[in-house]
Design brief:
By secondary structure, the protein is α/β, with parallel strands linked by helices. The chain has eight helices and five strands. The chain binds shikimate-3-phosphate.
Length: 180
């Protein structure tokens, strides 16, 4: 029998700028669960910032560290996990996420995501390029079909993040009644 999803960990996936961390933190508060952010955990474990990790070890090593951190966090405790934007892309990490958590894709539109990341670009090594808009379009084209493999898709709400939190809770309940 598949485990009751209400007791499963919940992992938020999706592009940079969709609000995984803010929505995750508030969702955790509403559901009375602990919250973790995979980027923060990588920084804690390695003693480096994400940007520093990319610079010193490259993206491939970062993806390995990310997989290890996610595997460790998804030990069955019903946490809320905000993943880094690339975590759901490698097959192995996606397999772990889908097996051990209820995965929710926070799906953002180009303009909303671009507006949000432009405030915090120095923290995001993938957008430290000459044309961040073109890079974001490329990431969207490549990644959206992969994020679509999450258990649930929730288009982010316009306006305050709390609206997206409410949409996520409704979507989980709808998913539960469909799969009951
Ligand atoms: C990445 C997204 C970032 C961070 C790293 C790589 C990506 O996380 O993990 O810069 O590949 O999209 P956020 O989505 O939290 O910005």
């Amino acid at each position: 029998m598949s485990p009751d999803i209400t007791t499963r960990p919940i992992a938020l996936v999706g592009l940079m700028g969709v609000g995984k961390t803010t929505v995750g933190r508030r969702l955790a508060k509403k559901l009375g669960r602990d919250f973790y952010d995979s980027d923060d955990e990588i920084e804690l474990a390695s003693g480096r910032t994400v940007a520093g990790y990319f610079r010193d070890h490259g993206e491939a090593e970062f993806r390995k560290g990310e997989r290890r951190v996610i595997e460790r966090l998804l030990d069955g405790t019903p946490i809320i996990l905000a993943t880094g934007g690339g975590a759901f892309i490698p097959n192995e990490t996606r397999k772990i996420l889908k097996e051990k958590a209820l995965t929710i894709w926070l799906k953002g539109d180009f303009n909303t995501v671009m507006e949000r990341v432009s405030r915090n670009r120095e923290k995001r090594p993938l957008l430290r390029v000459e044309d961040p808009r073109a890079k974001m379009r490329e990431l969207m084209d490549i990644r959206h079909p992969i994020y679509a493999k999450a258990h649930i898709t929730v288009p982010i709400a316009r306006g305050p993040h709390i609206r997206t939190v409410h949409k996520v809770i409704r979507a989980i309940k709808a998913h539960e009644s469909e799969t009951a």
